[in-house]
Amino acid sequence: MRNENSKPTREQRGELKTRFPIRVVYENISLPRKPVWIRAKAPTDPKALNLKVLLREHNLHTVCEEAACPNLGECFTHGTATFMIMGDLCTRRCPFCDVAHGRPKPLDKNEPANLAHAIQLMKLQYVVITSVDRDDLKDGGAGHFAECIRKVRAMVPAITIEILTPDFRKRADIALAIIQSSPPDVFNHNLETVPRLYRYARPGAVYEGSLELIRHFKSQHPDVPTKSGLMLGLGETIEEVKEVLNDLRAHDCDWLTIGQYLQPSRHHLPVGRFVHPDEFNKLGDYARNIGFKNVASGPMVRSSYHADMQAQGEIVGRVAV
User: Fold this and answer.
1) Which of the 8 DSSP states describes residue 99?
2) What is the C-alpha separation between 283 and 295, in angstroms, rounded?
3) Closest CA to 92 of 60, 136, 149, 58
């Protein structure tokens, strides 16, 4: 058990979290050193440090910190963050993810108001709200998402809100009915990887269920953009990735992010390979050709990286090496 006032331990993020009976074996693949195009800025800028203070004062979490995002320094320096609601402990054990696993605390009823106040102080025009998986809740946390959207809109009426949701396992109909009362401006749910690798990378999730969640939301809100993301380098083939992209378009997904998987610790899934920027560029072009309206594809792209720029139709992630 962890102390209620302490942060998750390293073991909760790694060794204990990723202890699975299933192992991924990469045959004939040696782990290369990080190439020159994998670059991250350390969060040493005073603006980044001030943002961390603001988040702690409002008892808020960001997926940037909890998932050890390599873009944290860049985003915090620019005063942007992806807020992670419903605590810092996830009920899932996805072995690619650095968010800690454990028994979550009860929902903080003050979190929606604290979130709205922090967003107001940051003077944000675009915000991404995500969450841990909360399989312990009857609605999967959908009601808390809706309340956060309501509070933020009440305090910052002109803001654009993107939500990045879990799959609401076996509760999708209930969850979407709740979110329908306060829909976001962008609905994002990540497929993460190709279906062949789901039992290794997303245990407990169902590929078809995630696709259906996107399609179902779009059928309820045809004017709200839908979005999803993939990470490369887990052992998938480019042809498998293209099949996933076609599945997403067939399920009414409008926007797309594709980035490089980076192993958070030696206990997490290993990197099968570092995908060259040229391959990301080609996949981005392929996605646009099959009908995605906005595409961010590049080694350092993450689901909410420069989400505001992507929403404006700017090309994000393209790298020349």
Assistant:
1) S
2) 10
3) 136
Q: How far is CA 54 from the centre of its chain?
A: 22
Whether 37 contacts 320, CB under 8 Å: no
Cβ-defined contacts of 240-243 (< 8 Å, 24+): 240/194, 240/196, 241/194, 241/283, 242/283, 242/286, 243/194
Closest by alpha carbon to 34, among 267, 320, 233, 295? 233
CB 248 within 8 A of CB 214: yes
Q: Which helix (H) or strand (E) holds 70?
A: none
Q: Tens digits of per-residue pLDDT, 152-195?
A: 999 999 999 999 999 998 899 999 999 999 999 999 999 999 99
Total residues belonging to the chain: 321
Q: Which two tokens stand for residue 164?
A: 């990045």
Helix (H, G, I), strand (E, B) or coil at 63: helix
Euclidean distance between CA atoms 83 and 59, whole angstroms: 11
For 23, counting Cβ atoms within 10 Å of its Cβ (0-12 exposed, 13-18 middle, 19+ buried), the class is: exposed
- Which residues are bridge partners to 188 per DSSP? 164, 227
Residue 134 to residue 147: CA distance in whole angstroms: 16
Give the Å distances, CA to CA, from 203 to 93, 102, 169, 236, 283. Answer: 7, 15, 12, 17, 26
Per-residue pLDDT tens for 222-263? 999 999 999 999 999 999 999 999 999 999 999 999 999 988
* First-residue to last-residue Cα distance in the chain: 47
This prediction has a pTM of 0.85
Which stretches does DSSP call E strand in the chain? 61-62, 82-85, 89-90, 100-101, 126-131, 160-164, 186-188, 226-232, 255-260, 294-297
* Residue 181 near residue 146 (C-beta atoms within 8 A): yes
